[in-house]
Amino acid sequence: MLLWRVERTERVVQPTGAGTACSRRRSTTPSRPAPGALVIGRATCNGRPSDFFPGAIRDVRVFDRALAAARIKTPS
């Protein structure tokens, strides 16, 4: 399972249950709502779909708030 957490000025991608291994991106600009739809499995480059994920994606869960650590380990 992969966790993507966005805080005020930090974005963290971390495999859940993997200790502290993660990718962090800090910004001086606070997070804000993004225009458009949530897209999973591809990127956009110059307004066109690109970088398609080559495998299967299943059991995706999106929350509108930060979750407690215990909830991340055992989501329901």
TrEMBL record:
<dbReference type="Pfam" id="PF13385">
    <property type="entry name" value="Laminin_G_3"/>
</dbReference>
<feature type="region of interest" description="Disordered">
    <location>
        <begin position="15"/>
        <end position="38"/>
    </location>
</feature>
<dbReference type="InterPro" id="IPR013320">
    <property type="entry name" value="ConA-like_dom_sf"/>
</dbReference>
<protein>
    <recommendedName>
        <fullName>LamG-like jellyroll fold domain-containing protein</fullName>
    </recommendedName>
</protein>
